[in-house]
Amino acid sequence: MTARIRALVISVAALATISGVPGESIQAAAAPPPPAVPPAALLPLETVPHASARDGFDLTSALSARSGQDRAESRVDVGGCEDVVHGRLVGDDAAGQGFQSAVPGGQVSELVARMTNPPDLAAWAAQAGRCSKVTVDDAAGTASSTVTVHPAPVVPGAKTLSYQQLLTLPGQPPELPGLRLRTVAIAADDVLVVLRDAGTTGLDLDALAVAAWQHAAGPLGR
């Protein structure tokens, strides 16, 4: 994997990017802050297969630290596909907790967020379909983003989303397939749970996302 792909991964795969700047096409207007999310809402480390010690963060702090940097560095202008390319499912009007942890073959991350204006996951799926093939030219360099929407797990009373993104460099040979990222999201009322893995982790991300949703219910009083 080249350094340019690694640089782009920082803005796409990290949890801080899951909580990136909202886009006009798939985010609602700003609203008053939502209730806080306790760290206990996150999956316990031992429930993530073969995960190492995790790096956790508070979403509000991460948004404050990242938003200015994202706006300053991003030069993506690809016909309304910016949020899809950068995996930005959470906007500024959110509170939450997240973690990122290494697993064999890559890394896995989780975010549990509460917001007054949760994203419309059906609109996200439609936008991802329209943004299935995009050439990105931003601060990390030039790369190709290919997004494929998959059937999402069925969760009673909730909306779900599942998609895969492949990042490659222009002219990259077939023996270097690029970086694969998978995302599964579950949302209902003011709660959003996002699971993402990067690389060749072999994780059952659907099952892990459903487990995360069920686990978060108690700490969030749902």
Q: Total number of β-strand segments?
A: 8
What is the overall silhouette? globular
Number of helices: 6
The biggest beta sheet is recorded as: 8 strands, antiparallel
Low-pLDDT parts are 1-26
Query: Strands of the biggest beta sheet: in what spatial order?
Result: 1-2-3-8-7-6-5-4
Q: What does the radius of gyration come to?
A: 16 Å
Distance between the termini: 42 Å
What is the helix content? 25-40%
What is the structure about, briefly put?
The chain is of the alpha+beta class and 222 residues long. It is built from six helices and eight strands, in the order ααβααββαβββββα.
List the helices and strands and how they pair.
Layout: H1 3-13, H2 15-18, E1 55-58, H3 59-73, H4 82-86, E2 94-103, E3 106-115, H5 121-130, E4 133-138, E5 141-150, E6 159-168, E7 179-188, E8 191-199, H6 205-217
List keywords for this structure.
8-stranded antiparallel β-sheet, 6 helices, 31% strand, alpha+beta, globular, single chain, disordered N terminus, 222 residues
Structure characterization notes:
By secondary structure, the chain is an alpha+beta fold. It is 26% helix and 31% strand. The chain has six helices and eight strands. An eight-stranded antiparallel β-sheet has the order 1-2-3-8-7-6-5-4, sandwiched between helices. The longest helix is centred in the first third of the chain and has 15 residues. The protein is globular, with a radius of gyration of 16 Å. 45% of the residues are buried.
